[in-house]
Write a structure and sequence with these properties.
The complex is a heterodimer of chains A (421) and B (401).
Chain A lengths: L1 H12 L4 H16 L6 H34 L28 H34 L4 H15 L3 H15 L8 E2 L4 E4 L2 E4 L1 E4 L3 H28 L6 H25 L4 E4 L2 E3 L2 E3 L2 E3 L1 H27 L3 H9 L4 H31 L11 H12 L2 H30 L5
Helix pairs in contact in A: 1-2, 4-5, 4-9, 4-12, 5-9, 6-9, 7-8, 9-11, 10-11, 11-13, 12-13
Chain B lengths: L18 H10 L2 H28 L3 H5 L1 H6 L8 H20 L3 H16 L5 H23 L4 H20 L16 H27 L4 H15 L3 H15 L9 H27 L2 H9 L4 H16 L1 H14 L3 H4 L4 H9 L12 H30 L5
Helix pairs in contact in B: 5-6, 5-7, 5-8, 6-7, 6-18, 9-10, 9-12, 9-15, 9-17, 10-12, 11-12, 12-14, 12-15, 13-14, 15-18, 17-18
Classes of the chains: A alpha+beta (421), B mainly alpha (401).
């Protein structure tokens, strides 16, 4: 009641500037009389508390139901089963024996996933850059073909490509001995998989190894020293430093290779695949499962990477190219020194996304029977009935892989990003 | 007195190329381009013969033709197969009606559907042809009706709102009526793929919107919950989310409820997974709105709900339409993962068709025929969606307003 009195009297008193007086006094009045259920700060706290209670209550309800169900089924939730022998074989990857534990089996699956993801990432990047640049080609025919590639592979589910490739290898390729040998016998194909010629270390490799290490060490020293002196001259970062380091390293490797060869035999030889008994011998053998998974992941992801690369190059303003040409830079110099660095800044963030997608998509290996971590985990689940540990392990592994990859690549991205300050 | 007058502004020189000029600039100049063209042409010429021979002579397209019903509706009982036909007719009628009211994109969809139906008709069996023809006529009838009665816009929108429950009732049936129940395990083919995509989209969009708003919220508990949910879901593959629901949903629900339907489990996984991605797309739009818009709305005395409803969301959603359509395309492709959980949607049907015993005698089976057809069906839908997105962008004036 007091508030109202003061308000009125002041308004009467300050006739000429009544408005001003009223505004000055209003906050005081509202603070005194506002009920708590209309106070924004109190409401915010209440809303959050209600939300938190709701979420916690829901989780508690679900967990309680789950425990009740598990008790009825008689399955205790624990990770102790991981130490028991697995009792199943894994068709490829690190050597694994059924007597080894479930945990080891899961580890073999993780390594298989990483193997597929890494090979897929490298190949998809190469193919994607190629197709992306081809889409910007001045050659009409090449540009059309690249567009056809992108539209074909991007618009159809990855799972279809995987299942299709696997069925094509298993059903349409001939049997082992009737399979075609391509490229002068360096590539053998059959329904047992694909075998490629691959470099292999020979007996003289031990003599070559010091050269390898010396190349790395000396190259590193040269790189660091050149960077140091460049910084001394006031140049913060120098491309020549890296070039010098790589050159020194390369020279040492080549001379070491030639030296070992001249003394005895080459330290690295091509291992050419051949058919022996019921299998391939030598070379790099890709099982039908791995070949299908790799092919599907690479062609599918490459079509997305191609679009990323194309968008990145198109994002560089036209004036940059024209300015570079006006300065007299050659076509190659324009691309390497002007277009590329600017395009990379646009390309890298979505490219990181594509790498993460590829890694996560490798879980579709289950559809072709490649023993990645998901499919090994599912086998473990089928044998033990431990559904909750299985799902938790799968999710934790993928989550940590995703977070780790994005952390590393985002750091790289921050180094390349434009310094705004 | 000597005066100067500005020279007349000349139009740019006309760029007209003769056919030889076009060939020169696009294919033959400089020398390495000519070489490239020659190599590509040689490759195409080498490939053209075998491809032509396979498509028109060698391929066993009857594997697709015989199983066309399987591809369209899966294992839906043959006595009840008129029900998907009725659904098609109903949706075509609604689409026709809406096309008369909303120009632009919906008209584009209707035109595409009409052309598609007309092209499809000669390929089909008698019954399917009746429903396809019925759908084409219904589309035109709906358009005519809405055109004759221009004030019916709200009614058509109500029709769309009711369409999903009606479709589910017609397909699923009701016990004790003329519509005998059809369990969801018998739904399949393209019908199931489309249903999964549409229901997934309808369910995940509001959820994604809520998550995006939650992530932008000033209330820390809600913001951290939204961030944790979005990052957790985006860090794991869809298969693992589907597997989570397939294996764990029965455990987390009271035993008295019985085992939840497989279709329901797939939909739950698909929806909760897509919602996280939707949220990130919407957040992109929300962040693009200048701060002044919020401040102006607040100073006008609008509440938070009014600010969002009338000021922020209309602008934010318009800005992210391409991303949202991209998400729809992803969702449509992601429905193929239901095969892994055991649903016979389009890809599942394709896998079962190549295993049919009558094609085992053919060397190499019918792998290429079946998967080429399936890829084409997927491709037609995703390609149309991306074309429609471009058109929608133009109609709404993204980037030009």
């Amino acid at each position: 009641m007091n508030g109202y009195c003061a308000y009125n009297s002041l308004l009467l008193w300050g006739e000429g500037r009544g408005e001003w007086v009223a505004i000055m006094h209003q906050p005081q009045r509202t603070l005194q009389t506002i009920p708590f259920y209309r106070n924004v700060r109190v409401l915010a706290v209440l809303a959050q508390a209600a939300f938190a209670i709701g979420v916690v209550g829901l989780v508690w309800l679900l967990v309680a139901t789950m425990q009740e169900n598990m008790r009825k089924q008689g399955i205790p939730i624990s990770f102790a089963f991981l130490q028991q022998p697995a009792g199943f074989a894994i068709s490829e990857g690190l050597p694994f024996h059924p007597s080894q534990s479930y945990l080891t089996a899961f580890g073999v699956g993780v390594v298989n996933t990483l193997r597929a993801a890494m090979a897929g990432t490298i190949l998809a990047t190469l193919l994607g850059i190629g197709v992306g640049v081809a889409r910007l080609s001045r050659n009409w025919l090449l540009e059309r073909l690249a567009t056809l590639y992108v539209e074909t592979f991007r618009n159809v589910p990855l799972l279809l490509w995987l299942v299709f490739t696997y069925a094509a290898i298993r059903e349409t390729l001939p049997r082992l001995r009737e399979g075609p040998a391509l490229l002068w016998g360096t590539v053998l194909m059959s329904n047992r998989g694909i075998a490629l010629a691959w470099p292999q270390t020979s007996a003289t490799y031990s003599a070559f190894q010091p050269w390898l290490l010396a190349g790395l060490g000396l190259g590193g020293v040269v790189w660091l020293w050149t960077t140091y002196t460049a910084r001394h001259r006031g140049v913060p970062w120098s491309a020549t430093a890296l070039r010098w380091g790589v050159t020194v390293c390369g020279v040492l490797w080549v001379s070491g290779f030639v030296w070992t060869w001249a003394m005895a035999a080459p330290p690295l030889v091509w291992s050419i695949p051949r058919i022996q008994g019921f299998n391939y011998q030598g070379g790099l053998v890709l099982s039908p499962e791995f070949a299908a998974l790799l092919f599907g992941l690479v062609v599918y992801t490459a079509s997305f990477i191609a679009e990323v690369v194309r968008a990145g190059i198109l994002a560089v303003p036209k004036g940059q190219r024209e300015a570079a040409q006006a300065l007299g830079l050659s076509e190659r110099q324009t691309f390497v020194l002007v277009i590329c660095p600017q395009a990379l800044r646009v390309i890298i963030p979505p490219l990181i996304n594509q790498y993460l997608n590829l890694t996560k998509n490798s879980s579709l290996a289950i559809a072709v029977g490649y023993p990645d971590l998901f499919s090994v985990g599912l086998t473990i689940n089928n044998q033990t009935g431990q559904a909750i540990p299985f799902v938790m392990m799968i999710m934790a592994t993928y989550l940590s892989m995703s977070l780790l990859t994005s952390w590393v690549l985002n750091r790289l991205n921050r180094r390349l990003a434009l310094k705004t300050s | 007195m000597h005066t100067t007058s500005p020279a007349p502004v000349l139009p740019p020189p006309e760029m007209s190329l003769s056919i030889f000029g076009w060939l020169r600039t696009n294919l033959l100049h400089p020398w390495y381009n000519a070489l490239l063209t020659a190599v590509l042409l040689a490759g195409l010429a080498l490939a053209a013969g075998p491809v032509w021979r396979w498509v028109f002579i060698l391929a066993h397209w009857q594997a697709v033709a015989v199983n066309l019903r399987l591809f369209m509706v899966g294992l839906y009982p043959s006595a009840q197969v008129w029900r998907p036909g009725v659904v098609l007719i109903l949706l075509a009628w609604l689409l026709g009606g809406s096309a008369a009211h909303h120009r632009g994109m919906i008209q584009g969809v209707s035109t595409m559907l009409l052309v598609g139906l007309v092209l499809l008709a000669p390929l089909l069996t008698e019954l399917a042809r009746v429903s396809v023809a019925g759908a084409a006529l219904a589309l035109l009838a709906g358009y005519g009706l809405a055109w004759l009665w221009p004030h019916s816009k709200k009614l058509w929108q109500l029709g769309w709102l009711l369409s999903l429950p009606i479709v589910l009732i017609v397909l699923g049936g009701v016990r004790g009526t003329g519509l005998s129940p059809v369990p969801t395990t018998q739904w399949g083919g393209l019908m199931l793929t489309l249903l999964l995509a549409v229901i997934g989209l309808v369910a995940s969009f509001p959820l994604g919107l809520a998550l995006a708003l939650g992530r932008q919220s000033t209330l820390p508990v809600i913001r951290w919950f939204a961030i944790a949910y979005i990052e957790l879901v985006r860090g794991v593959p869809l298969v693992s989310v589907l597997m989570l629901f397939s294996l764990l949903l029965p455990l987390f629900l009271p035993a008295s409820w019985g085992r939840p339907d497989t279709l329901l489990r797939i939909l739950a996984g698909l929806t909760l997974f897509t919602a996280a991605y939707m949220a990130e797309n919407v957040r992109g739009g929300l962040q693009a709105i200048p701060r002044g818009q919020y401040e102006a709305a607040t100073s006008l005395g609008l509440t938070w709900v009014q600010t969002m409803r009338y000021i922020i969301l209309p602008q934010a959603l318009r800005a992210v339409i391409p991303a949202l359509v991209g998400q729809c395309i992803s969702l449509f492709k992601d429905t193929s993962l239901a095969t892994i959980i055991g649903a016979l949607e389009l890809l599942g049907i394709a896998k079962s068709v190549i295993e049919q015993s009558e094609w085992k005698g053919i060397t190499g089976g019918v792998v290429f025929e079946v998967f080429t057809f399936t890829a084409l069906v997927y491709g037609v839908f995703t390609y149309s969606m991306s074309r429609l997105s471009r058109r929608l962008e133009r109609d709404l004036g993204v980037g030009t307003r």
